[in-house]
């Protein structure tokens, strides 16, 4: 099958994971600077201080993207680089970096896909409550307007939030991600304020960007599968917490009853005010879908050891308030190096369920990829396992398109090996190998294979 002409092949990165230069040209700390410098929170004590040094290697990285034939590149803008204190004065040097990035992409025929928030909240805002505070939602809208005014004449697609579930439930529930808080009501409050920030930012963007720009959000939608007689109840509650808290609010303008029931002993949702849900429910041009794996779940019967193979870095709290008694069962494999089960069919299942529910809303795969134990041998990384992973998932995208889903593109995660959050530099997702000592880039076999897929526009 040859994919439709409008289907875009590309790749994706995130600011804190690749840029480095954390204290240069007016940038101030984000919550990930603070988190990564706190002993014991990131493997091997790794930080994003240098990462891939992309800030200083912009031109050569742009040339690499062109060499691989990328048609689209999804990057994120570092809020603390553009508005260092979270609110207040704009940093011209920060905006200049992203302006040069966007211009460099366009010069090379690559469409810019900009993400406003990929988890690096300015630390000054966290000091004032972070996503537990309503004011952070308005602060993001102001930041969105500043970014949109500067880059909105050139950026093809704008994404408000990347994986707000992780920001809320891993950041304020389990504590596995920055800012490292753990509670029960807190992640629900944070999720609502992230939703509100999304709605306000969509409004702000549409007032300043070019008329034909697309506005989107990227959600890491979970695919849960039931196990045994209690599996259906487990799926219902986890789906409410993992998916419906965003899909329902953003795309339908309400929090579903299953979510309110699941969290009845956690919160009364008193932090939802006035017209919040109407503000959150803004028309979108495309829905970003991040997909990596599936989960098999059931309720724990209280006996034996409760399995918790949910794929997230171990932490003090639970990211599932109101569903802490659910078991995430070990999957049969095969697995990526993250321990995530490889299940390409789950992507087709997810795309078709979204198409059935929101038939007028196109989707784009804004993240899909895998970490494997890559080995550099004689100057080459022959990552056939990654090729197989990506190929099988692209086949499911093709199948979904053939079955009627309007899928607009596939952005492979990730362009470069990078700082993988709580795992530091221990996990490599890139199709380009990075020697973190010398910063040498070496395209892996998967990069050469992907370039050929793009050239042919076919997996045949």
UniProtKB/TrEMBL annotation:
Top-level EC class as recorded in UniProt: hydrolase
Chain intervals for the UniProt region annotation (Disordered): 302-322
Pfam families registered for this protein in UniProt: Glyco_hydro_1 (PF00232)
GO molecular-function terms, A-Z: beta-glucosidase activity
Keywords for this protein: Carbohydrate metabolism, Cellulose degradation, Glycosidase, Hydrolase, Polysaccharide degradation
EC number: 3.2.1.21
Record's compositionally biased regions (Basic and acidic residues): 302-313
Catalytic activities: Hydrolysis of terminal, non-reducing beta-D-glucosyl residues with release of beta-D-glucose
Record's keyword annotation contains Transferase: no
Family: Belongs to the glycosyl hydrolase 1 family.
Protein name: Beta-glucosidase
Native organism: Herbiconiux aconitum
